[in-house]
Specification:
With about 625 residues, the chain is α+β, with helices and mostly antiparallel strands. It is built from 17 helices and 23 strands. A hairpin with a 5-residue loop joins strand 9 (about 215-220) and strand 10. Helix 15 (about 525-540) packs antiparallel against helix 17. The radius of gyration is 58 Å and the shape is elongated. Mean pLDDT is about 80; it is low at about 1-20.
């Protein structure tokens, strides 16, 4: 049937709602011309304060074309159309215009179909009759439109609320009364580490009571336990009673509070400790200075002494002198050991150019106690900032020991030169004599050759000693540990030294505990220790004397003892006898040697983790 439009005049009647005062577009889907006329008449003669504009369609196809091409505020729908019947007609209209409210037009026999349509979402239904298309139609239409508008507002509010819930940082979970999860927001997905599909339909593991609030524990992603504040409210969800649980993860807050509490406690303890240590810091600085191996003096820009350590006090001879704030020049005297000239320019130079300066090679510290000490000295600026020098720190140390070692080395070079020259001279002299005397008898020749052999052995031992101390001090000598029979080593050393001892009329005695077990050691180096000690004893024992070598067990250790009836060692020499090149009275006694034997012994004993004493 052809479509037509009808303009309905506006009447002055008040209508509550958004429809008042505007034109309402209605699509009438009816294939019967009589009913089309009645509907049009009812819409044209309304007494409401609205204007209805009706568009007619006689088939479902025409209705869908109109709905596709334009927007309508309402659809009046007859379920019986030439190209569609029953609820299929309604569903087709809803599919085309899902948000447009629909009023069903049905005959008396189709009441049940109208009720079913309302259940499917229709706004209302009207029976076709003489009284159907008067004020009842208009009131029903306005009521459906207003209710649709309210439903739109409600749906928008629901969308807004969902948006707020989904954007919130707190997890929101909706369950039915049996704790089956019906809804979760993205925050809940993050809290559980699962997506909505995994959570929906699952059971919420905690009891829900309307109005309840408190903390619960949840198993969070990664196996960690999350502490959550939960609040529960009773709501209606999709027409059914339900619970809404709001979950706020306070794990980090609890952790932060614990850390804050711990920090406050630590801060309290730290402040107490700092307050307690304020007075001790100066003492600590003094102890640090006192434990340094160098003397330290700090002066201000006027070269007045502001700080010094105990070693500086000792080396400078200040024990009985007030030093604080005294001029450095009055209390600290360094001279050139060659010229005696005072060396006081080093501090002035640091103050002037602001760079570290070093003392001279021949500096001598003249103490107030009258003692002279060779020193190595360095002075460095104390800066407040990059450009300002506020003082000078002077660090110096006593190098008397180094100087003594240098003298010992010089003595050693002289001694070793003599020791090397003596056998070489002897060897050369006897060799030349044998070469030049063709008529030398065999006995004399044999005696000369024995002397050459002995001097060669002496030269070889000297060179081996030098090589051995070099290997030991450089770390190139390694131990070859094994089971060592001390009894056998002692006897072996005694047998080797008896010819030398016999020539001096010195007797060698051995005393070894036969129950002494084997020890774990380097056999060759242990033999060297025993031989060096015993040989030293033989050299410094006068004719008729005795050298004793013994070995015994002392607890878990083995002790080797070498004693003699010689002249002994002066007390002042005892601290130095194991130093390289050091010799006790060797020059006066004319005893040949290099001063390396006991140094080699000490190194070998240290390598074994043992100890040696006199």
């Amino acid at each position: 049937m052809p479509c037509e439009k009808s303009a309905v005049p506006r009447y002055n009647q008040t209508l509550n709602g958004a429809a008042a005062g505007r034109t309402i577009r209605v699509l009438v889907v009816e294939d019967d011309g009589i009913w089309q006329h009645l509907v049009g008449h009812a819409l044209r003669n309304t007494r409401s304060a609205v204007t209805f504009e009706a568009t007619f369609a006689g088939t479902l196809r025409q209705a869908r074309e109109h709905l596709t091409m334009g927007r309508f505020d309402m659809v009046l729908l007859d379920l019986g159309l030439p190209d569609s019947q029953g609820l299929d007609t309604y569903h087709a209209i809803r599919k085309t215009a899902p948000d447009t409210p629909v009023i069903m037009l049905t005959g008396t026999d189709d009441e049940q179909v109208g009720i079913e349509a309302i259940r499917c979402g229709a706004g209302d239904f009207l029976f076709k009759g003489e009284n159907a298309f008067n004020d009842v139609l208009v009131r029903t239409a306005l009521h459906v439109i207003e209710r649709s508008r309210q439903d739109d507002v409600l749906r928008q509010s629901e969308r807004n609320l969902r948006g707020i819930i989904n954007a919130g940082r707190d997890a929101v979970i909706v369950t039915d009364l049996q704790s089956t999860i019906l809804f979760v927001n993205p925050a809940a997905e993050r809290l559980y580490g699962q997506n909505a599909e995994q959570l929906l339909g699952a059971r919420f593991e905690h009891e829900l009571v309307a109005g309840a609030a408190g903390e619960i524990s949840l198993k969070a992603p990664g196996g960690r336990c999350a502490v959550v504040e939960m609040q529960v409210a009773a709501i209606e969800w999709q027409g059914h009673p339900a619970f809404l649980a709001s979950l706020h993860d306070v794990t980090e807050l609890r952790t932060a509070r614990r850390k804050l509490h711990k920090y406050r406690e630590n801060l309290r303890v730290l402040v107490a400790e700092r307050l307690h240590k304020v007075d001790a810091e100066k003492e600590l600085l003094s102890v640090t200075f006192s434990s340094m191996a160098e003397g330290v003096i700090v002066v201000d820009p006027d070269k007045r002494i502001v700080l010094f350590n105990r070693l500086a006090e000792t080396l400078a001879g200040w024990e009985f002198e007030p030093v604080q704030d005294r001029p450095l020049g009055e209390m600290f005297h360094v001279v050139d050991g060659r010229t005696g000239q005072v060396q006081d320019a080093i501090v002035d130079k640091v103050l002037r150019i602001g760079r570290t300066q070093f003392g001279g090679e021949h500096d001598i510290l003249v103490g107030l106690d009258g003692r002279d000490r060779p020193v190595s000295m360095v002075a460095a600026p104390v800066r407040q900032d990059e450009d300002r020098v506020i003082g000078v720190v002077i660090v110096f140390r006593d190098i008397s020991k180094e100087r003594r070692l240098e003298r010992l080395k010089e003595d050693f070079i002289a001694s070793i030169s003599h020791e090397l020259r003596t056998p070489l001279t002897c060897i050369k002299a006897y060799t030349e004599t044998i070469i030049d005397d063709d008529r030398m008898d065999s006995q004399t020749r044999g005696e000369f050759l024995r002397i050459i052999d002995q001097e060669s052995d002496r030269l070889a031992q000297l060179i081996e000693g030098l090589l051995e101390i070099s290997r030991l001090e450089s770390g190139r000598a390694a131990l070859a540990p094994g089971r060592v029979d001390l009894c056998r080593l002692v006897e072996k050393a005694a047998v080797a030294l008896r010819p030398v001892a016999d020539r001096k009329d010195v007797r060698i005695e051995t005393l070894v505990d036969p129950r002494l077990p084997a020890i774990e050691a380097d056999a060759s180096k242990t033999e060297s220790v025993i031989t060096n000690l015993a040989n030293n004893a033989v050299k410094f024992t006068e004719p008729g004397g005795v050298v004793r070598i013994s070995a015994e067990q002392r607890g878990p250790l083995a002790a080797i003892r070498v004693s003699d009836t010689g002249m002994g060692i002066p007390p002042e020499d005892l601290p130095h006898i194991f130093e390289r090149f050091y010799r006790v009275g060797a020059t006066a006694l004319k005893v040949p040697g290099t001063g390396l034997g006991l140094a080699i012994v000490k190194k070998i004993v240290d390598m074994h983790g043992g100890s040696i004493e006199v």
